[in-house]
Every structure is written in structure tokens, then in C-alpha cells.
Design a protein that fits this description.
Distance between the termini: 95 Å
Largest sheet: 2 strands, antiparallel
Structural class: mainly alpha
Strand order of the largest sheet: 1-2
Oligomer: single chain
Shape: globular
Radius of gyration: 35 Å
Helix content: over 70%
Strand content: under 5%
Number of domains: 1
Number of strands: 4
Length: 472
Amino acid sequence: MRDSLLRLPQEQKTVEVSFLTRLRKRLLSADFDVFTLLAALVLCAIGVLMVYSASISASFLATDDASTSYFFDRHMRNFVIGLVVMFLLSAIDYRVWQRYSLWIMIGTIGSLVMVLQFGDERLAASRSLIQGSVQPGEAAKMAVVVYMAAWLASRQKHLKNISYGLIPFSILMGLTCILLVLQPDLSTAATVMATALTMFFLAGADWFQLGGIASGAGISGYLMITQLDYAQSRINDHLAAIQDLTQANDHVQASVEAFLNGQLFGVGLGEGTQKFGRLPFPHTDSIFAVIGEELGLMGAFIVVGLFMFLVYRGFVVAKNATDLYGALLASGVVLSIAYDAMLNIAVMTALVPPTGVPLPFISFGGSSLVTAMAGIGLVLSVSRQSLKEDAPAKERANHLPFDLRHNTTAPQKEETDQANSSAASDVASESTTTEKQSQEQTHDGHPQTDIGERRRHRRGHISRVSRRERDS
């Protein structure tokens, strides 16, 4: 009894270690990039916490003081939808979307046109359909990635030809960005153009083409900004704030004050004050400022680090992809997410003029959250297919001799086996012939089959002659 009591803690420890070992093996043996999934889910978890904290006041106003979780409940609904979409897309072979990429792009352009004609106008902009529940501009980000990946992969060898690369790219992206600017939605247009241009570079475009597209986009953007009164006003306010922060608009000042209040470790989750009327849209566009106040600079750095890690894992998946389409698709998805995150963070830290762009995975917004999680599903599908196609090669290698494991195809294995067997038979025949010849040779009437024996016989003969001379 005493021995069993002494062994009980050790047995419990063994059970815990074995459980952790099984969990670690299961995660590491997953048929997709588990680190990409974990980074996205951690960002979503932070978003759930921050949306609940930042939307209390907004929920009161939206429901006439009837509920404090109105926006949180809708965010959880969107999160569940995003999870379903993400896992469905991760289970489907991503190469299916290459065949339907043209129709996806046509449908996206059609939805952008519908927004201009039948969209719900809010805050002097028409960006959504169905009472604000669907924003085609958010879906356009991933649609452009899917189509551009297919288009660039099919024309990789002809991209440096202006008629095949530069001109069609400029027309397609110009049409998409014009439809976004007319809503107006400058931030989404900038993200789409930056993502497409980077994908164009990764596919093999030369610097002349990239410089031409960037110059054209810059000139067009400048002309559009000068024609839009609200954009010109924001730029003027930002230039004034650079010289004197007190001259910035209320949004920028509230964001800066939130970070100053949070300092290094924050005032605590739910304890922020800027979200109560001072900071506009605290649960959507300004949620990073709420993070800075309640979680401090450390919390803000953790969020930035998670986005950086997600982008890194996306490029790892792209590097290991089995084809160019998969590589461009994975890199395009994480680039789109990265540009949105950088733009939102830059606005909240007063580095660029204010603009309405959500923080991916974290801000409240069904279209933004579901689109970002759908993109992660595509990245997981690319990683799943690459790991699945690498598995047979690794399995074959485990059954080969150590010095032949670099062979990956069955014909190469058969040719190598035939060459090794023929070489072994040649060596065996040569050794048999040598033995027969050595057995036929004689020295002093004795069969000689070994060089060492011949040398020992010669030394013995010399020693006998020497003794005879001494005796004589």
C-alpha cells in the first residue's frame, strides 16, 4: 500500500507527459501548416475579447440601453461563419479556384457596380449591400488575389512582354480600383493595388514595368485625392498635425491619448476610457487604439508580432507550394492581410491620414472577418496539398537504402537498382577469375594464392641460404 501511494504522483506525471507528447505529435503530424492556423486563431481570440470590451458603449446606443453585448453577439456569429468557411476552403483543393478565377473576378466587378447603383449609403459613402451586412469591397480583396494568382501563373513566361503583362494588368487593376474609389473607398483601393503589384513582382515582372505601374498609380491617386474634398481635408489636417499635434483632428488626438494612457502594460482589459464617446468607432476602425490603452504597448507589440509571424508562415507555405499558382495564392493572401494591418496601425499611430480600414481578425465587421478567415483557409489548402504530395516521396525514401534516399521517383529507383546489381555481378565475376588464376600459378611446385604467403616463403628461403653460408 505504501509503495502504491509513493508511485501515484509518478504515474500521474507519466500520464500528463504522455498526453502532452501525444498532443505535440498530433499537432506536428497535421496535414496542414498548423502554425498559420494557430496565429490566425490567436488573433481572432484577441479580437473577441477586444470587441466585447470596446463595444459596450456602442451596444447601449444601438439598442437604447437594452444590451451591452449586441455587437459582441454579432461578432461571435460572424466568427463561427468564418470558421466554417475557413475549414471548408482548407479541405478543398485550391487548384479548383484556378479554373473559376475568371468568373469570380467577373462576379466581384458586378457586385462593385451593384454597390454604386443599389448600395446603402452610410457616412457619405456607399460601400455595402443588404442593409450594411455585406461589403463587396472586402470580398474584392481576396477575389483579386485568386484571379491575379491564376492570371500571373498562366502568363509567367510572357510577363515581360508589355502586351501580355503591363497593359492587361493596368487595365484590370485600374477598373477595379476606379470602382472602389467611386464608392468612395480609398483604403481598399490602395490595399488591392499594393497586393496586386507585389504579386506582379513575385511572378517575375521587371523593374521597368513595376516603375511604370507605380508611377501611374501614384499620379492617378494624386488626381483623385485632389478631386475629393474629404480626402483633401484629411491630408491637410495630417500635415498640420505633423507640425503641431494639437492641430490634429479629434480622431487622431483620441488615438494618441489612448496610447499615452496605456503606457507599457495598459490600464487593464475593459478599463479604458477613450472608447466611451471620445474615440470614434472603437470596436471597428479604432480598435487598435483600444488595445494600446487597455493592454499597453506590450499588448500592441504582441498583436504586431502575431501579424508578422502570420506573414512569415504564409511565405513559408508559398515557398513549399507545388506550383506557381499555389505560391502566388498563399503569398497574395498574407500580403493583403499585412497591408490592411499596416494601414490600420499607421492610422491609429498618426503616421498616415485617417481612413476607414478594419484591423484583420480583430475589428468588428462580418465581411472583413469572414474574408480574412477565408483567405487563411486558402493558405491552409495550399499547405495541405504540398504536404500531401510530399508524403509519398518520403514514404518511398524510408524503404530505400541509406545512400539511395535522394531518389524520389520509381523509374530512377529501378535504374539505380539495375546499375547496382550489374556492378555487383561484374565485381563477383572478376573476383572469381582472379581466384582461378592465382590458384593455377605455382612457386616451387606449391600453389600460390596469396601475396603475403609468397613474401613469407621468399623471406624463409633467404634466411635458409644465410644459415648455410655461415655454417660453411
